[in-house]
Each structure stands twice: as structure tokens, then as C-alpha cells.
Amino acid sequence: EYVGQGLYVVKYTPTISGHYSISVEINHDYIRADLSSGVRVDTTVASAQHSTHNSHLVAVAGLEETFQVVARDRFGNTLPSLTSHEDFELDVTLHGVPNPCNSVQREDDPIAIIEIL
Q1: Nearest to 20 by CA among 43, 35, 40
Q2: Which terminus of the chain has a lower count of CB atoms within 10 Å, N or C?
């Protein structure tokens, strides 16, 4: 966008994280600028719609079940490892009903989250 007095504003929206080199040309001539280090595009915040997990469809009562969550942003970029749990909130909820053949009646939560690594 030309804003006057030879000044242009260039806008871009990257969607794939990574390291990119940038060059700018006017009439096929490169503009001299210190872009030698390039541009780093980071991921954005985690998106539940684009993240995945590998939990099993069947679990056994009394046995610890583990699964992995791959957190991705809204563009499908895998989020890097987090150094702090403050940066990321993961809620795990179990919905359903106990087997009607089960003779044990429990009023407490049927699932206990031991640890999120």
C-alpha cells in the first residue's frame, strides 16, 4: 500500500511456522536491506479443534491409562514443547455411564487424573 513520499506499507499473514528468508524487489531490482537473518514465524495459541490425542477406546478399571496430546495451532502447526504448565491448560473430562452389570455404586468421580506430564 502506497502511503506517500515513496513510502509503502507491506502486510503479510504467515500461516506455517518456520524460518524464512525475505527479499524485496522493485521493478526486478532488489532493495538493499539487512534481512540476512531472515524472519522467524512462531506458532500461535493451541486450538482444540486442530489438536489430536491417541487415547484408547477401551480402558480397564484399576489400571493406569496413558495417552499423548499433540497440541496444534489453528493453522495445524505443532506447538513446541512447553517449559511451563502456565502456558497451556489441558482439561480432561470423562463422560458416560457405568456398565449396568457393575455391582459397585459410586458417587465420586469415576476417573482420577494422576499427573499430566
Answers
A1: 40
A2: C
Which residues, including other chains, have CB under 8 Å from residue 80's CB and lie 6 or more apart? 43
pLDDT digits (tens, 9 = 90+) for 6-36: 888 888 888 999 988 888 888 888 888 777 7
Tell me the pLDDT tens digit for each residue of 29-66: 888 877 778 888 888 888 889 999 998 888 887 888 88
CA distance 28 to 8: 16
| Torsion over CA: 71, 76, 82, 87 (sign) | negative
Tell me: pLDDT of 117 over 70.
no
Q: Residue 77: how many CB atoms within 10 A of its CB?
A: 19
Q: How many CA atoms lie within 13 A of 92 on its CB side?
A: 16
pTM reported for the whole predicted model: 0.63
Residue whose C-alpha cell reads 524460518 in the numeric block: 19
Between CA 78 and CA 16 the distance in angstroms is: 10
The angle formed by the CA atoms of residues 42, 47 and 49, to the nearest 5 degrees, is 140
